[in-house]
Amino acid sequence: MKPFRVHATFRLAGTTFVVTAVGTAFAFVAQMLVARNLGAAEYGYYAYSISWVLMLAVVAKLGWDTCSLRILPAAAAMGEWARYRGFAQFSSFFVAGLSIVISLLMAVAVAALWGRLDQGLRFSLLWASLLLPMFAFSELMVSWLQGLKKNVSAQLAYGIFRPIVIIASVATAVLFGFELNSAKMMAVNVVTMLMVMGLLVLVLKASWPADARGVVAQSEIGSWLKITLPLFAISLSQLALSRADVLIAGFYLDASSLGIYAAANQFAMLVTFGISTMNSVTAPMIAQEYARGDRKKLQDVVRLTSRIALTFTVPACVVLILFGKQILSLFGLEFAEAFHSLLVLSIGQLVIAIFGPVGFLLTMTAYQKQALIVICAAAVLQVALILILTPRFGIVGAATGSAIGNASRSMVLAWVVRRKLQISGSAF
């Protein structure tokens, strides 16, 4: 039995962490420039449109991206290259086709509701419908690269190049005196995603295993669907836990308040930056070690990456608590109103980071159904709380419902992991 390679895992995790941190910094600058130039109201339309893209992209992917993190590493570990190629082919055709259908349906829905939508939101949502299939397929390709342990290459194309193009676009518009709005920024996202897709295709061609190139594809659609459908429901519930507050708040808040809250939501995600980054490293490793039946290595991988994640999580939380108002003001003075919402959201994100990658420990092994029950229940709880609290307490109410849903999910998942796998997802 090969010993657990701490240095190799640490090197991969550390490199991924640094590259993703650089990408996050660029993304922060991009969001700051967009918010400052759009203002709270237009930024609200922009954030609302992006939230719909994220939600519908999960439907379009139908869990195939998450499933690839489990199927591809396991197939590679067992030398099942025909199965490897068959899965990649089928998932690509499936996601491409379904995303185009959903994109068309979204455009039709926007056209049908044209007279009821705010003027600033109409064209933004139309551009969002065009962005949807590009976004969905790009995320599928990113998951393939993660399964190949090419996390750095994926982040360079998807996490760094993309925000740099947006920064350059906004800077150019400001330099030449062009007025920006939410629809124009969505158009910039469409052009940017086209370039990102081209880069991802080039990286995949260079990284694809030679053993998977010349074999005849083997399809196991029935068995794959048994895995991917629960993973889809989990992914949709996970996204609901992270984006339902913005979508639901859009029905109760004006555009300015929605934009202010969306900024707080984005900043709170920084608390779980560490664990989110490490998940991309940990997920394929979990699938491989579980397939090999090595629980000790599985625990070692999870503990090491969770400890790396916490080295960022705790300082990030402290910074947001101490300097949250000043950081929010970088988006514009009006955004400082979201400080209390930011504090509440950060607490919920901190709980997620403390308990570690408990969701992936279940979905990358044989317990996706148990994960599905817990995550769906947490999503229902969160949506109910947001519906109850937002009309009464505004953005703080939305933040409270979101934080409780996220915290409860991680706590219950940690209990299930301990019971089913007899290991811990935390750093301790």
Structure at a glance:
By secondary structure, the protein is an all-alpha fold. The protein has helices spanning about 5-60, 65-80, 80-110, 120-145, 150-175, 180-205, 220-250, 255-270, 275-290, 295-330, 340-355, 360-365, 370-420.
Structure explained in plain terms:
- 84% of the residues lie in helices and 0% in strands.
- By secondary structure, it is mainly α.
- The chain has one domain.
- Helix 4 (119-147) runs parallel beside helix 6 (182-207) and helix 11 packs across helix 13 (368-421).
- 54% of the residues are buried.
- Mean pLDDT is 83; it is low at 1-6.
Tell me the structural class: mainly alpha
- Stretches where pLDDT is under 50 for at least 5 consecutive residues are 1-6
Percent helix: over 70%
Name the overall outline.
globular
Beta-strand fraction estimate:
under 5%
Please describe the topology of this protein.
Blueprint: H1 6-61, H2 64-78, H3 81-112, H4 119-147, H5 151-175, H6 182-207, H7 221-252, H8 255-268, H9 273-292, H10 295-329, H11 339-355, H12 358-363, H13 368-421
